[in-house]
């Protein structure tokens, strides 16, 4: 369980996230909605410690995330996998290697540098690609795939981390409706079948309504709505 207590993040004079207080239970599928600049991606980045809060605390299963260091921090960053709007694959590397890169947080730096993956890891990577229905692209360069395919590779890479939480920052904002549906269906399926918590920023309310069992609305850094889709009227 993830607890966010009185979290504020400032960038200079600008308060990007303001006094956010949230508890997220394991297995929830949470959609965060709000205008551009509302603080959604800052909130996600604080959860996995890409950046730190200016004030407040974030804890997971009772452990203070901002106090984690070294191996414990690597473990946490493996436990919460990130998915980005622009996929963040390495375009020149093949798809299979991109998925295997999801394992790197498990390893010592020396092994990372040696770039050795075990047979078991390769099998798992292929299985993750099969789960996303793109195993046929395994040997192609990631940069040659369509956006929808690349996002599915990014989800496969996230699964390689065996995460407890997937944090997705506008995962479908660069995709056409058909690919957006495939990607959201995949995230929902992973949430339902594996019980992985999914927290995703979305720019359209309709998507959040269709897929999420909890919607958090943000405006100017603050949480202005938090509830099931049924509780939403027409605001936000
Ligand atoms: P959203 O994801 O809802 O579009 P962001 O979290 O990206 O919102 O941004 C919230 C506010 O914080 C915006 O005003 C943005 O310009 C600012 N901000 C975000 N990241 C930085 C940064 N690294 N440095 C300075 N300001 C930032
Ligand atoms: P989003 O798609 O979430 O709105 P942005 O386009 O606001 O993201 O931000 C893209 C990148 O620029 C992020 O790394 C963010 O931290 C950074 N950033 C956003 N706003 C600012 C800012 N005002 N000053 C410096 N960096 C910023």
UniProtKB/TrEMBL annotation:
Residue numbers of the full-length protein present here: 1 to 236 of 280
Residues in ABC transporter domain copies: 2-236
Keywords: ATP-binding, Cell membrane, Membrane, Nucleotide-binding, Translocase, Transport
Family: Belongs to the ABC transporter superfamily.
Protein name, UniProt field: Phosphonate transport system ATP-binding protein
Superkingdom of this protein's organism: Bacteria
Annotated GO MF terms: ABC-type phosphonate transporter activity; ATP binding; ATP hydrolysis activity
Listed GO CC annotations: membrane
């Amino acid at each position: 369980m993830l607890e966010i207590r009185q979290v504020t993040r400032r960038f200079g004079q600008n308060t990007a996230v303001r006094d956010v207080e949230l508890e997220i239970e394991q297995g929830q599928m949470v959609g965060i909605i709000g205008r551009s600049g509302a603080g959604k991606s800052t909130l996600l980045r604080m959860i996995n410690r890409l950046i730190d809060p200016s004030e407040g605390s974030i804890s997971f299963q009772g452990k203070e995330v901002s106090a984690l260091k070294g191996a414990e921090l690597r473990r946490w960053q493996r436990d919460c996998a990130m998915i980005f709007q622009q996929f963040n694959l390495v375009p020149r590397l093949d798809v299979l290697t991109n998925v295997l890169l999801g394992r790197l947080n498990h390893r010592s730096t020396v092994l990372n540098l040696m770039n050795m993956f075990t047979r078991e890891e390769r099998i798992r990577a292929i299985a993750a690609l099969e789960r996303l229905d793109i195993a046929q692209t395994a040997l192609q360069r990631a940069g040659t795939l369509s956006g929808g395919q690349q996002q599915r590779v990014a989800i496969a890479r996230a699964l390689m981390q065996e995460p407890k939480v997937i944090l997705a920052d506008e995962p479908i904002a660069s995709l056409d409706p058909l690919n957006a549906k495939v990607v959201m269906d995949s995230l929902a399926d992973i949430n339902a079948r594996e019980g992985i918590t999914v927290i995703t920023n979305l720019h359209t309310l309709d998507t959040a309504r269709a897929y999420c069992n909890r919607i958090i609305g943000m405006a100017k850094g603050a949480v202005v709505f938090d509830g099931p889709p049924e509780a939403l009227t027409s605001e936000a």
